Amino acid sequence: MSATDDDARHMRRAIALARRRLGRTAExxxxxxxxxxxxxVVAEAATAEGGRPHAxxxxxxxxxxxxxxxxxxxxxxxxxxxxxxxxxxxxxxVAAGVRRVVYACDHAHHLxxxxxxxxxxxxxxxVESGVLADEAAELYRER
Length: 143
Hints:
Elements: H1 5-19, E1 32-37, E2 40-46, H2 55-63, E3 71-76, H3 89-96, E4 100-105, H4 115-122, E5 126-129, H5 133-137
Parallel strand pairs: 3-4, 4-5
Antiparallel strand pairs: 1-2, 1-3
């Protein structure tokens, strides 16, 4: 499945959410997440001040049951593990029952590095990577 105009629109919103948090998320990257079901945005969030909770965690909590069967747009690949032992974003996306995850940029951090997308695919979730990666990359350049 390839990216659509709607994918680009929702990813641009996720990028805008993340941009507002630049420099305010401690050692964690600023990430934006938009959850869409049947063409309607049901929740959105960005990494919290200080780096926690993560964007996906907040957006999924706000979406509740509306996340089941939805599409999650995320500026950075969902993490595979959390340094604090909490459930990872990829595990939360699986548990929430999203049907598709679209993300912009890969994350080389050892708690991510492809592990999150692999978990999503293993759970049968469609994963699209690299959507607006050039636009989102500015969020993750060394500052």
